[in-house]
Amino acid sequence: MEPRAGRRAHRSVSQHHDHPATEEGQQREGVGCDWSWGSIIWTSVGLSVSVGLGLLCCIYVATLHENDLWFSNIKEVEREISFRTECGLYYSYYKQMLQAPSIQEGLLELIHDNLTESRRTINLLQRMNIYQEVFLSVLYRLLPIKTYLEPAVYVIALYLTAWLLSGSWLAGALAGLWYILNRVDTTRVEFTISLRENWSLPFLALQVATITCYLRPQLTSFQQVMVWLMYVTTFCFCLTWQFNQFILLVQALIIYTLDCVDLLTTTQVTTLYLVQVSGLLSVWLLQFCNSMILGSLVLMLVVFLQTDLKVGGLLVRLSKILLHSVLVFLLTFTINYLTKKALQVRSDEHIFKFIKSKFALRPTRDFDASLYLCEEAFGLLPLDTLERLADTLLLYPYVPTLLLLSGTLAVAAFRNLSCSEGGSSEQKKGAAEAFRSDVAYNLLHTLLYGLVAFSTMRMKYIWTGHMCAVAAHGVCSAELWTLLLRTLRFMKCSTPDTVELMTWISTKTPKQAVFAGSMQLLAGIKLCTGRVLTNHPHYEDKDLRDRTRQVYQVYARRSPEEVYGILRAAGADYVVLENSICYERRHRRGCRLRDLLDLANGHIMDGPGENDPDLTPAEHPRFCEAIQTDGAAYTALFSRTFQNKTFHVYRLKKKRRKTPSSPAEPAATP
Questions:
Q1: Residue numbers of the chain with a pLDDT score lower than 50
Q2: Looking at the 3D structure of the chain, how many domains does it have?
Q3: What angle (nearest 5°) sits at the alpha carbon of residue 154, between those of residues 150 and 159?
Q4: Measuring CA to CA, how many Å separate 323 from each of 119, 158, 326, 336?
Q5: pTM greater than 0.85
Q6: Angle at 269 between CA 264 and CA 274, to 5 degrees
Q7: From CA 282, how far away is CA 231, in angstroms rounded?
Q8: Strand 647-652 relative to strand 574-578, pairing
Q9: Domain that holds residue 565
Q10: Residue 382: in which H helix or E strand, if any?
Q11: Same domain (yes/no): 446, 577
């Protein structure tokens, strides 16, 4: 009969070392994490496919535009009248820049324009988002370029997002193909080229890709680069669309939600908010201090979001989050109202009238609101959109992926909220293993913008493109398939991490090597590899029980010297540490293996709760956690030889000096 041990994590992407003497190296999933020749070639193929798909979409859309209008064969005036509604207005400024005697004079004409509005001289660069026309006109005057870059950039951005989420560029290829196949619902660029959203959405997609990369686990060396890329893409997005502040507001709500449920670190939250604020303020400067940007809700919201809500049990934390959220939104709208009054900002009031009227229970007589509400594009999303998405097989994988990820996110959020700040290091590690931050961000992105799309048809282009990346992630992610199979109880034997561990032991360690670890795992090691064990699950032997209790001190608060002595006394050459035991959250406080060891050693247990008066604080940190920091005291005695997301294997080094002999089985004393 054997006592239980914690469950192992199920995530399968791993990192390991072929030789026991090698030091630990960090490896990241997905793009650019392995520098072997095979990985470099595979990654290069993936990047080439992304560029190829982008160019294919570019040529395809350009051909559709040409076939629809015979654009290159019609008169100049016929080309110009093909630019519908506001597209013609924006194109006129591009044409004005091209016809100006010089770039400088063209810019002055835009800054002091008296041809757009009668009896008024306005600054077009301040009033309108037309920097893209200025940039292209300058480029056109300096370089011989004529191309449609928007579809290519958008497809490449979706490709990268799907690749980052799933770890396979095949998901990126599938996302790109879905985007092209669903062009009716993913883009309007073929017949409204100069529409603001056609310029901005590719930058939004690039921003989402950079945020996804920034939030990936174990991202270290490229973190600063990602922050700058997030800023650049956010800035370009804000510069090219007048509705940028409302899109960023939804993003701020996503960040706020993930922060509340402990799925983002304080550093990540602060960085993402600063990127948003910096992007908006940079655009504010470029648009000659446009007061509409200063009246943005997202600027007011950011001020109140950094608050410590991470103390207390489930009900306490939920109450704090609810109260804090109410205060945040009340203060946000109050300060926003006062700011707009002080600055006399009325540029965006028609948008708020539209939103208010759209969700009102009775008709409105307001002219501005009615002007929008009577347009089909600002109505509810037609159901035939879903039919078209289903016809291309996009909707079928998207919905199950959404449901599976939403359920997993709910479970992860519940677990995080059920634990307070007490055992912070283990809780953060457990949260990272329960649900990846980058996946959580993209999930909330597709959920919230999906709601926006259903409420306003014109906004569907923000949602449908991202749908392609999420659906491709669902189809190509081995991690999701593993989770699905486990949910359906079709997978009961082993995990990929365990298989990888057994393979490594069989091929990279001596056949006479002695392994220490949990009883359940060592039984598997005996079966799969034939290696020698320090302990095993046959618990009906007093000496073995004593030895097992000693070996389990690797999960207690003991010094590296004590643990080394215990393992050497048992004859161990290697010790296998399991995250699912070290950071166990399945059992209640007092029943976790680390709690049982703390009580046996006379130490206070982790986390909030009562402790017996005779228990004392431990002098040393928990060994299984502290050894992962690679401190000098630990690396002098142990060398990491294998690591994935479930297991850490350390080889016991041989001491150079001869130390005094210790008892055969050291007692488990505090």
A1: 1-32, 146-147, 306, 421-432, 489-492, 659, 661-670
A2: 3
A3: 150
A4: 51, 37, 5, 20
A5: no
A6: 160
A7: 10
A8: antiparallel
A9: 496-652
A10: none
A11: no
